[in-house]
Amino acid sequence: MPEGRDSKSNGATQEATKTVDVPAVVSLKDFAELIQVPAADIIRKLMSLGVLASLNQKLSPEVVTRLAKNFGFTANVIAAGTPAAVGAPAAAATAGVVKPVVPGKMRVKGAGGPVPRPPVVTIMGHVDHGKTTLLDAIRNAKVVDSEFGGITQHIGAYQVEVDDTAHDGIKRKVTFLDTPGHAAFTAMRARGAQVTDIAVIVVAADDGIMPQTVEAINHAKTAGVPIIIAVNKIDKEGANPERVLTQLTEHDVMPERYGGTVQTVEVSATQKLGLDDLLDTILLVADAEVEPKADPNAPATAVVVEAQLDKGRGTVATVLVEQGTLRAHDAIVVGEAHGRIRAMINDRGQQVDRATPSTPVEILGLSRVPNAGDRLEVVKNEKVARQRAESKASDVRDARLAANTRLTLEDIVKQYKEGAVKELHVILKGDVHGSVEAVQEALENINHPEVKCNFISTGVGTIGEADVEQAAATGSLIFGFNVRIDNAAAKAAVAAHVKVQEFNIIYNLIDAVKLSMAELLDPIYEEVPLGEAEVRMPFKLPGARGVVAGSYIKEGKVARGASVRVKRGKVLVHEGKIEQLRREKDDAREVAYGYECGILIPGYQPEVGDILSVYEIKKTLRTI
Ligand code: GDP
Question: Is 0.70 topped by the overall pTM?
Fold first, then answer.
């Protein structure tokens, strides 16, 4: 497998971390250009990770991050809607037009440069296939520093020490995330954190590939994380490891034994068989495919693995150091939380005063409980930490407000004034008294603050002309339960546009009534933010009604016809709609992030520096 190593990954980097800005959406070809590596090398690399990619394939940010690492770069993925950090021309991510950022903008960071760090491993797989047992077995057999009698505490991640048989038995560490399952992996990915270097996928030899096995394989593939298959429970009667390998090939995972690239190891978590083999394989894959490195002298960052509020100790967060060295008493900010590290505790319950890359530690002293996947940063002092956390909290509040324009106070007041609760007029007919009562009761029990059923009449027997007349006169709907409508009534109903519905199953009838009730509710109008533009230059255009705001799209996109709120500093100076949109000399329907354009909003006098928040109103029908 070592031949899979990329010569480029060391040669060109001169031992310094080169940071390259990469747009959130980038094609393989553009990415290759960006890091100046032949596209074929990247395709080959992806194949070794089990991903078949074409030149025009769009790469996910995770894959970009991983590939960059492989080729000796640190990727700074510029999220769609975020201006490029170093002033490089921003890419039009949302428009699907991806312009590579000029490679000359690479930054060289860190003094000592990156050095090898322990690989970080996540164990995934189907429920009951033995993830927890395997994690426990590895931990108990191999905890770093046996001096402490193998006493470990669960902090969400642990490190073991392995004799590297391939390298004269030198001792090397491996970090395991001690939260089996996919939730932690996806939660972190959802927050853009990519701490896992290798995924060990556990498959029980007696059960074979199951739905969550496939899910795990897919998670790892989309994240660009190399896979090792641990075929577990080989001690069990009925274990059939060979069948597992065959099944893997059906899911595009080609075991090395079958000529592919994926390593497989047979283990028994309960009998502690094959554990050394698994650890050796982890080191092998780490060396050949990941080459995990980090700069212990860089500014420290870490990712939250888990966190909770402890009665005695306050906020306790387990973090995994990514870069740099985290020190006790550092001032830190983690999302909306901030503080000074009061104490730092390792996976054996010992207080430590520093933690290097890939080391998990518990930290005490945060102002609030952060989320798994949040990134920790060390800042100059507590004041800066607090400011940063507060500004993040206010961003989050704004975003929540924008997403939460459902029922405004105005709506509620309006509803109140209108006498509020709406009524669905219902005429109900059934086969016997008991059933009519039961249905009526069920319908009366549909509780909703804005709408209810009003029974115009209820009764036993066929739906007749009299019912239809009454429905037409009162604007009611007719519901029949276990009864039919007679012919004359059916004709009358068509003529009078009265809706008649017949049911034999009470739940279906209730659902139909709910649907009609929901139709009476006002739809929800939600604001959907589109993007943000900054006015760079106001100008007059011959024939245009008003002054055009020459603007730069800082985030998302803007669209003709969309609504706009204009802020000058903190003051809202105008609200209106985009009447005309121009890109260079042409009218445009939409203009995306990173471009300049002319925006005409009738009645608005643009000034340099104004911020235009552009949004659309989405109408959603409600349900009950
Ligand atoms: P998880 O849901 O994937 O975390 O699975 P667990 O670790 O909870 O294991 C599920 C069951 O399988 C437990 O009863 C374990 O004792 C059993 N188990 C796990 N590994 C092995 C093994 O290697 N051999 C046998 N015979 N049983 C195992």
Answer: no
The single-letter code of the amino acid at 190 is A
| CA of 261 relative to ligand 1 center, distance in Å | 27
In this structure, what token pair is assigned to residue 621?
């029908």
pLDDT tens, position by position, 102-121: 233 333 333 467 889 999 99
Which residues does 162 contact at the CB level (< 8 Å), separation at least 6? 142, 171, 172, 173, 174, 276, 279, 280, 282, 283
Sequence-distant (≥ 6) Cβ neighbours of residue 119 within 8 angstroms: 174, 175, 197, 198, 282, 283, 285, 286, 290, 292, 358
Are 59 and 26 in contact, with CB atoms under 8 Å apart?
yes
Q: Whose CA is nearest to atom 9 of ligand 1?
A: 130
Closest listed residue to residue 569, CA positions, set 543, 532, 607: 607
Q: Return the residue whose CA atom lies nearest to atom 18 of ligand 1.
A: 130
Question: Strands, E, within 71-186: which ranges?
Answer: 73-78, 107-109, 115-116, 120-125, 157-164, 170-177
132 lines ligand 1 (CB under 6 A): yes
Judge contact between 316 and 308, C-beta under 8 A: yes
Tell me if 269 CB under 6 Å of ligand 1: yes
Ligand 1 binding pocket includes 128 (Cβ within 6 Å): yes
Task: Report CA(236)–ligand 1 centroid distance (Å).
Answer: 11
Compute the residue count for the chain. 624
What residues in the chain have per-residue pLDDT under 70?
1-17, 47-53, 79-112, 142-153, 180-184, 186-193, 395-420
